[in-house]
Every structure is written in C-alpha cells, then in structure tokens.
Amino acid sequence: MKTSYKYLAALMLPFMASCDSDDVQYHIENPEDQMHITASVEELVLTAETVDDEVLTFNWNPPMERGENAKITTYFRMGVADNNFEESTGLIEMAPDQTSISFTCDDLNDYLMEWGISPETTVSVEAQLIASVTDTTLYKKPELS
Q1: pLDDT attached to residue 136
Q2: Under a CB-based contact definition with an 8 Å cutoff, are residues 135 and 69 in contact?
Q3: Which DSSP string corresponds to 119-144?
Q4: Are 77 and 93 in contact (CB under 8 A)?
Q5: Could you give the CA distance from residue 98 to residue 120 in angstroms, rounded to a whole number?
Q6: What's the distance, CA 85 to chain centroid?
Q7: Mode of pairing for the β-strands spanning 125-134 and 100-104
Q8: Within a 10 A sphere around the Cβ of 133, how many other Cβ atoms?
Q9: Rounded CA gap, 17 and 81, in Å?
Q10: Residue 98: CB atoms within 10 Å
Q11: Which residues make beta-bridge pairs with 103?
C-alpha cells in the first residue's frame, strides 16, 4: 500500500510544481480622466431661506469613448470626504447624455443628517463619477473622476 502512495506522489509532483511556476498577472491601465468633475461652489452654508433652492451643482464632460461595442453607464456618488464613500449617496445612475447633477439645500441637509452630521457642523464632501463599460468583448476598467 505504501508503494502505491509513493508512485501517486511521484506522479503528482510535476503537476504541483507546474501550477506554482505559471502565475500570470495582468495589469490594466486606468483610462485617463476626461470627465473632470467640478463643483459649482467651494463653500456653502445651508440656511432656511434657501431650503428649496438648487445650491450645489456638479458638472462634467462626457466620458471617453471606449470602442464600437462599448456601452457606457455613468454613476455619480457624493459623500463625506476622506471616508472612502462609506457615508455616501450610493451610486446614482445618470442618463446617457447627462453631464450635471444639482442638489437643493433640502436635499443636502437630508443627506448630511442621514450621514450623522449634526446641524451647524462644518463638513467637507467629495463626489465621484464612475463611467462603467459593458457589452464589450473585452474587459475595460471604468473611467473615474
């Protein structure tokens, strides 16, 4: 019985060695940011007088064309800065030709309260665009802005 295990181990050794030596790693470059998201204001104070007014708008350029078969879906999210979007709006799908999104004072106030930010607190927010590519024959990394 021991002899058959020796033969089996001897047969498996070349297979095990070949699996470890053929590690393949792929590096796919991030596409250049052509969307260049910008905010309409640097600082903003939310007040009762502006509750229904659009007080913050994010604008961007269309994402990079990614080939004939590529379908690009752009998502927007906004959250507390330097928090890896743990406290954020979640992904909001944009219309195919949409290049801006606006928020009222009331919208922003609702988000801030949802994120646990108390009134009269200064907070920095950040926004991100993700242009995801689907329906292609090859995987393509999303464009980020």
Answers
A1: 65
A2: yes
A3: TT----EEEEEEEEEES-SS--PPEE
A4: no
A5: 33
A6: 9
A7: unpaired
A8: 21
A9: 47
A10: 12
A11: 56
Q: Which two tokens stand for residue 35?
A: 């969307």
Please tell me whether residue 106 adopts helix, strand or coil conformation. Answer: helix
Question: pLDDT for 98-129, tens place per residue?
Answer: 999 999 999 999 999 999 998 888 999 999 99
Residues with Cβ < 8 Å from 145, sequence gap 6 or more? 33, 35, 36, 37, 60, 128, 129, 131
How confident is the model at residue 12, as a pLDDT?
A: 53
Report yes or no: 70 and 140 within 8 Å, Cβ to Cβ. yes
Instruction: Give the chain's length.
Output: 145
Give the Å distances, CA to CA, from 141 to 5, 64, 86, 136.
47, 12, 22, 12
Place of tokens 């980020």: 144
Angle at 116 between CA 115 and CA 119, to 5 degrees: 115
- Please give the biggest Cα pair distance in the chain: 88
Please give the C-alpha separations between residue 5 and each of 15, 31, 62, in angstroms, as whole numbers: 16, 53, 63
Structure-block tokens of residue 51: 């509750």
Give the pLDDT confidence of 54-70 residue by residue, as tens digits.
Answer: 999 999 999 988 777 78
Residue found under tokens 């004072």: 105
